[in-house]
Amino acid sequence: MAVGRKSKAEEGLAAQPDGTVRWSKGMREALARFNDRACGHCGGLLSAERNLADSLDFYRRHRASFYPPRAARLRMLEMHGAAAAELFFEPSPHKEAVTDLLAMHDEAVVRFFVTQVKQIDCKNALAKQAARWPMFVLRELLSANPARHQAGAALVLELLAANPEWQAPLEAACDDAQRKTLARLQEDGSDGVTDAAPEAWPALLRRPPWKNRQALPVVPTLALQPLQQTAVLHWNDLPPPQYVQATQGAAESADWLAQEVRVARERSDDWIREFARKQPAAPAAVQHGDAVRKALWMLGMHAECIEAVAAGRAITPDDFGKPPAEAWTVSEYLWQLPVALAVGVLTHGPAMPLYVGDATRIRPMLRHFGVALLPALPRYLRQGSRAMFELTSVVEWDQLADWIAKGFHTNRWVRGEAGDWLARYPDAAARGLIPAALGEPGAAHEAAQAALRWLHEEGHADAVRSQALAYGTEAAQAVEQLLAIAPEDLLPDVLPVLPKALPLAALPRLVLNDGEGKGHALPQACVPDVLMAMMLGRADAPYPGLPALLETLAPDSLARFGRALLAWWIGNGRPSKERWMFTLQGRLGDDETARQLYGLLRQWRAALDRVRAYDAMAMLGDIGSDAALMHLAELARQTRYDDLRTRADRMLGEVAEQRGLSLDQLADRTVPDLGLDARARLTLDFGPRSFEVRMDDHFQPVVHDARGKPLKTLPKPGANDEPGKAATATAQLRDLRKLAKTVTTTQLKRLEAAMCAQRRWGAGEFVPFFANHPVLRVFSRPLVWGVFDASNRLEASFRLSAEGELTDLHDDPVKLPGTARIGLPHPLELAALDPSLAAAWGAVLADYEIMQPFEQLTRQTFALDEALRTRRDLPQWAGRQVSNAGLMGLEARGWLREVGEGGMVDSFNKALPGGRRLCVQLEEGWFVQDIPDGKTLQTVRAVALDGTDKAGGTLGDIAPIAFSEIERDLQRVIRDAA
Fold this sequence. Notes:
Elements: E1 20-21, H1 25-32, H2 52-62, H3 69-80, H4 95-102, E2 104-105, H5 107-115, H6 120-132, H7 134-143, H8 151-162, H9 167-173, H10 176-185, H11 203-206, E3 232-233, H12 242-247, H13 250-253, H14 256-273, H15 275-278, H16 284-287, H17 291-298, H18 303-310, H19 327-330, H20 339-348, H21 362-369, H22 386-392, E4 395-396, H23 401-410, H24 415-424, H25 426-437, H26 443-457, H27 461-470, H28 473-484, H29 527-535, H30 546-551, H31 555-571, H32 580-583, H33 585-588, H34 591-606, H35 610-623, H36 626-637, H37 642-659, H38 663-669, E5 681-685, E6 690-695, E7 701-704, E8 710-711, H39 723-756, E9 761-762, H40 763-771, H41 776-780, E10 785-788, E11 794-800, E12 806-807, E13 821-823, H42 827-833, H43 837-847, E14 881-883, H44 884-892, E15 896-899, E16 904-911, E17 917-927, E18 937-945, H45 949-952, H46 960-973
Antiparallel strand pairs: 1-2, 3-4, 5-6, 6-7, 7-8, 9-13, 10-11, 10-13, 11-12, 14-18, 15-16, 16-17, 17-18
Helix pairs in contact: 1-3, 4-6, 6-7, 14-21, 17-18, 23-24, 23-26, 24-25, 25-26, 25-27, 26-27, 27-28, 34-35, 34-36, 35-36, 35-37, 36-37, 44-46
């Protein structure tokens, strides 16, 4: 066993691994657990004396029999030293293996980590090895010749950023190829942009507050007694819960609060009627007493206290013990008490248990007992409950202000609801906050001051000042001093620190957008200050100086800068201290950022990292571009994750409501144009010369030179080209290729779904959003369109020519009437107009060598067997098999998986008009948290409509197109009967 101590040679920059193994305590403990047993077939032992090659061969042939496997590998390491390291070389090694490899000071281990550098544990291991052997590790990384966006390149730049003194020795130690790679990775990324003069810098950067910290005016501390005002409840402002909106009509939901109270009272009366049966051990005085006495007993009051309290004595905490029944049922008895007793019990009795997000028990009580119940309310408020903040939205009460301010200042999940309360009741808010804001330092003091400043900045300055004056002249002057402090000057005592390994020089340049410095970049010396402004804030409350700073910078350069930060954050294991790099993407991002966030949030949701996925969704909403909304619409259409679909629906619904549109109409209007002109073309400028990108029929960008000759890609910039413009053009083409792929997938799915759902558009929508749209005109050209009458029957058909004209089967122009209803006709609709129409259109498209992007004219159709029209099931599918991959393919076609008893995914359903569903029911399925093997086969128990005969109808009630599509889906995934 090779063992050694760190030599003096290792202290130098040129130190190299010496081939020794530095055994740790954990490795020795793991080795001690190895139990070498003879093989049942050959009788051999792993510990038998062999040369390295024979030992490795024996290990590999018997590896399945060794337990624990780590101990067996360590035994080989003990026998043969670092030469046995290859046994630890596995793709994506787990942390235990990485720890063992770090103990092997061997060149082969370093080279293995270089091949695995995209794995965060291996990247961190290389950073530790670089601390021992700097030049050796850096040269190995450079020998891999990584592209600039790859993890190996990022690590080189990070190591040199953290250790600038390594630069010169590294350049001297590299061979020509390594030196060339290093120069490429460190080449100037300014794209020919020059630095802006200091006088053109944004004001914040000319004099950063954190570099010129001055003592802030001292706000006097005052001991103020809160002013009391009568509380008011505004029940008309509270919208019905979602379950009420979903299950009741407008007339019923209008009375939902009274209905909640009525149901709660009736439930309480039922409990009282059952008292004698359920509480036979209650004292006789209680058994024969009235409902009030029974209720006090059930709420935990001692029997000897009941009469005195019922007679009017004040309630104290000592009057109560443990309730005789389950805590969940105890609260039902409060409804039997008069107001004064109910308030006393809620204030001093055993706390009524609530789920964190549950306001359904408090809400009807507050509605029934009114403002008299408010003194007991703070006991039940939960900072983590958005439902509690929604409930308090109806309560105009000074004493809530501190609790609201705490949520506003410290809890990003409820900041929106808390801000709504402050803005709705500014006088009550200011009146309740001023004593804490001018009181002793502490958490409540900071939250109150932050809320007062926000009220002042949001247009409620008069309310703040008038309420301050009500506390007296001294308080009014103190509040004026508080509000006079510039928000930019309010800095934490300890400033955040940039991560040492962040390669500032490698970040994209930030280009000024206006003023004297327009077109020039901020110098590198300004970058730390820009990052400080980003670090000082939170996602929901940015540093006050940041918005004005971002306004001065070009959006595209900001987006590239933000994506570089995001890549660094992800590549370094998403450190929580640097989470600001992620949370700023919604403020900095563009369409490419939205594309990346869309991919990331799906990965995170699949890995059950819901919070991060939800944050990424919120950032898509913050970006708000057509591409970002398109990705949200895709999330709303996917069926795998109900939570993502629900959130996306809500976000899109808010946007659609703001614009006065339906969700489908919003989707039509938010297809990104990708920078293309009306002919679906884009000009890329190199300065002296330019190139044109044209989208082919598959929506792939094709580059053409000035003579119209197609090129495989953009040429490299020449000596006469402008480097900045050439680099921008290259980036444009790269981003266009990425976005085009996403747009193609999304829009073709949407168009196919529109055909199957028989969606129609007016001529005023079809022309601008399809025929003349730079992107959708490309997808619209290979399809056949139809004109439909008022009864939704196909009247005529046409196509969109390459020139953008509407033509019929004979290439004659088609003029759309102003009242035309246009849609993509399904093959069944084409056949209903003329059985030969689909074939005729197919011949026309073939003449023009046009391939349809999805099956329209050649789509297979199916009709329901007349014998099955009165049935609710399709018996031919029962007992047949379907793979898990096929079932998940149904999800891509709009089917929803359903979780049944025991958490098993045991059915997939397809929504039908009228709220009905057709379900594919499985014999077994898989557990909801498992990742199913796509090859595993499931047995179909039944394919049938759900619900009762009366509610669900029969198969004959399904529209012909809907049934044809269902049958087509099933034919594609369910296997033939054996």
